[in-house]
Fold this sequence. Notes:
Elements: E1 17-19, E2 22-24, E3 28-30, E4 52-54, E5 71-74, E6 77-80, H1 89-101, E7 106-111, H2 116-127, E8 133-137, H3 154-167, E9 173-176, H4 184-194, E10 198-201, E11 205-208, E12 210-211, E13 216-217, E14 223-227, H5 232-248, E15 255-258, H6 264-273, E16 277-280, H7 283-286, H8 290-304
Parallel strand pairs: 3-4, 3-16, 4-7, 7-8, 8-9, 9-10, 10-15, 15-16
Antiparallel strand pairs: 1-2, 5-6, 6-14, 11-14, 12-13
Helix pairs in contact: 2-3, 3-4, 4-5, 5-6, 6-8
Amino acid sequence: MSDALFETTEKKPDLSLKIAGVHFRNPVIAASGTFGCGKEYAPFFDISLLGGICSKGLTITPRPGNTGIRIWETPSGLLNSIGLENPGIPVFLERDLPYLKQSGAVIIANLSGAESSEYIRGAELLNESSVDMIELNISCPNVKAGGMAFGLDPGTAAALVAAVRRVCVSKPLIVKLSPNAPSIGTVALACIRAGADALSLVNSFKAMAIDVTNKKPVFDFTTSGLSGPAIKPIALRMVWELYDTLKESNMQVPIIGIGGISCANDALEFLMAGACAVQVGSATLVNPYTMTDIISGIIQYMQNNGIFQIGKISIRN
């Protein structure tokens, strides 16, 4: 997509915002796990146009990911069982981060682990690096240990956030929440009390598929994560309700909305529901220009409606 799409003779809306003190040029962020390290999308568009980029889910040591089938299409959605395949934090810091930093977008390191000690050591390394923020992944449904197991119970989630917060002293900490928690609001409040600077939601929904020909689950791990347009209405409702929960508890922190966002209208819905920014994931696998299309669509909406500051889009203020 040409940069000319972002040029206009009219007064240009200001899409910039701050999350936990970090400046974003716009509210559109590449979601973790769908954008690689940015190089994969560079042939399609200038990644410096994005507000932020979330890294692949990172662990302290390299992970090969899950065996067997990893991607399975569903009506209006996508099942994935990648299993946090990644090169490990040291390799990411040496090989991938320098390239990402050149973009000028906010670089968010998505941190995961199988146990708390792995999260803590990973946070120590990232805290000393040039990443701009850390997104604590306590919500991945595609791993046998760690991930979502930390995000279902408020006490467990708070303990991990507090432990990471103690070593994450120079980076803002985002906590990525699971829609599979019995009470996502209770988990969110526990995370804020433990030191979360912002919240992102939602990660994929735990789901599965069965191969009727071979009469067995499609995935070696049996369950997987559902993402894509099918989950958007549910994710949007969760953002709306969480905004109310935080406001009623007088514990408001920035919310980043995630879940099935594939066009500008989807992003606008999340911004109106109380999110200050959005992450876009599965849609980029179908159309690599999705995020730049969303940015230009938001600009057009703001111009058409006489809105010149991104924060004015919300209907929750």
